[in-house]
Amino acid sequence: MSASLPSELDRPALARGRSAAGTDPKSVSAALRRAEFGDRLRSLALAAPLLLLLALSFGIPIVLLLSRAVYDPTIADALPRTSQALGDWNGQGLPADAAFTALAADLSENQARGSAYELAKALNARLPGARSQVLKTVRQLEGAGGKPPLEVMKSVPFWSAPGTWPAIRTGTHSLTSFYLLSALDLRWNADGGIERVPPEQAIFLQVFLRTFFVAGAVTLATLLLGFPLAYLISSVPKGLAAILIVAVLLPFWTSILVRTAAWTVLLQKFGLVNDLLLWLGIASERLDLMYSRIGLIIAMTHIQLPFTLLPIYSVMRTIAPSQMKAAYSLGAKPFTAFRRVYLPQVFPGVMAGCLLTFILCLGYYITPALIGGASDQLISNFIANYVNVELNWEMAAALSFILLVFTLALFGIFARILGLDRLKMV
Amino acid sequence: MKLARTSLIALAAATACIAMGRAALADELSIMASGGAWQDAQRKAWFEPFTKETGTKILEQEYLGDLGKVKAMVDTGNVPIDLVTVETATVLQGCDAGILERLDYSKIGPRDKFIEGSALDCGVGLDAYGDILAYDPTVLKEAPTSVLDLFDTKKFPGKRAMRKFPAQNLEWALMADGVAPADVYKVLATPEGVDRAFKKLDTIKKDIVWWDAGAQPAQLLASQEVVMTTAWNGRIQNAIDTDKKPFKIVWNNQILEYDMIAIPKGAKNPDAAYKYLAYISKPENNAKLASYITYGPVRTDAASFVAPDALPKLPNAPDHLAGAYLVADTEFWGDYGEDLVKRFNAWLAQ
What we know:
The complex is a heterodimer.
Chain A (H helix, E strand, L loop, with lengths): L3 H18 L3 H43 L6 H5 L1 H6 L11 H17 L2 H11 L3 H13 L6 H7 L8 H8 L6 H6 L2 E3 L5 E3 L7 H32 L2 H15 L3 H12 L4 H9 L12 H24 L4 H9 L4 H29 L3 H6 L7 H11 L3 H26 L8
Antiparallel strand pairs in A: 1-2
Chain B lengths: L1 H24 L2 E6 L2 H19 L2 E6 L4 H10 L6 E5 H9 L27 E12 L24 E4 L5 H8 L7 H5 L2 H12 L5 E4 L4 H7 L5 E5 H9 L6 E15 L7 H12 L1 H4 L38 E3 L2 H20 L1
Parallel strand pairs in B: 1-2, 1-3, 5-6, 5-7, 8-9
Antiparallel strand pairs in B: 3-8, 4-7, 4-8
């Protein structure tokens, strides 16, 4: 990134130089490229240890984990005979008896290998209720006592029910779109098309929208609070500014969990905020601030404020007060001076602060879990639930992947509109 | 070449270190439990006496009960724990996912002496606890008589707290809608039954505050955030006995569940783990926990060993089983859990 910037800046100068001196443009730019190539190689070599560390400890694990979203070989590995037998089934009605026999053989082999439980769980994720049916059938096959496997399979109604075999067939493909589609509340229908899941099962699109809404609201709130404060800090004498900065940073040095817990104490029904509102006569009864969207946004705004404020402040500090005075002396009204002289200069800082806060908010987990109500949980809470509680890492990977894509897309749009080089981080 | 030799020596040294580490582990047993008052009780009832009797030192760890952590250990082949305490539904899940060892009951004790459903393939019962209703009589003037009073917002207005999980809530919803306890799981296995349960929950949805951690119900009651809450009986009893809170427990229509302990796959010291399981499964030892926290034994022949002053507070004391009650069906939740959790989360979000 940094290596490419000078060349971007140099290009217009180069173009001017070309027309003036009349040298061969091709040889100059080739020489420049060669020189830059050496530079880049050297800077790359210096950054190599860090890049290697990032790739090993960050890049590769993320790619491996995300690949679970589309690659799940459990069923295919467990049912090799069945997948072969299903090769010529047209997907209508029940498959031929050979498929039943093949499935029986596969099930018995899984039982012998001790992997029947894994298979049962993997099938159950796609076909609710399959878990106990697989285990029951496995036990019956074991104790069949000479009864042909086909007969055992036919005696369990589950294996002849509509929906069972299509689910098995899609399961035998290791490369699957099942989880990614589920993460977008979509699924394959019987005719091989994609459809929305019924409304009582649809959940994730709503949660993604909610996550972006909360992130947006918190970003806006931190901007409204942070901008005037940053202006104040940048305009007061140095000593006072240092005290104000410490006041902003003090909560920043406290653990996020502690700050969230502190908000629980403040916001609860018989907490300080409610006491104060009642005493001042602003509210006539105690408000439900805990387990609500408004409480969540208040707490997140408090935690995120330094992230928005500091980049803005760092830019404001560099703007000389004389500029505004110059604008006034040239006849600009205060608002015009602010809009045309001050704002364009702090804008990169504002955008950097907002982007930082917005992207951090997309990953919030502990604050929604503790302060938010059931309908205020963000996408990270669902990802954590799939990782820790339901052990469905495939689903967690799919949701993470979608979140990553949305975030990168947003970042891309932002970079396109503004240009990354205009961003000013602290 | 030189590099190869150096790394070979390093490898040998590392192997030697690991081997020595293993030898040192022989008389140590690493147990991961879910902390709090419950782990304190286990320490007094079982950890310390076991160490005294066998000389095996017990290393304690704590976690939140989320199997994801154990899965990460097993998947990476680095399992630093020998035993882990888990919920019943989690045992089934861990068994299916190949995270927990399938137990050899010949090394533990007679499987038929355990209460039905408390000796599973991958986990053995530690204690029985009740999902009950708790309230503060100084706040609620009229006393609820059944857990199902949760659904009576006319008689008991105000917020009520329930666990943010479909299990128990769906069962209670059906029972409140008139389904007999014996038929609850049959009805819940049908799509119509699930709809019916959610429809019943809809009637009180706006009055519910949801809790995640076991310590929350007592806090919510104490801060008067809610007028009544579902809870695990031991946590409320602990608040009554230790923190001197005036709370009351409603046992009628409670749901009985079991705490379990399991061996993660690849545990380094399975022999000591089995020795510990055999020790705590002896009826006289199994009954000891009740003296430190109000959770009952899971051995059918342990009742006579329970300390007389502890007995009246246990969920499976005769008095508390006199009314209606339900034993949680783990097989059902193994089958339908994932789907119902998803439906429940979607319902919450709407």
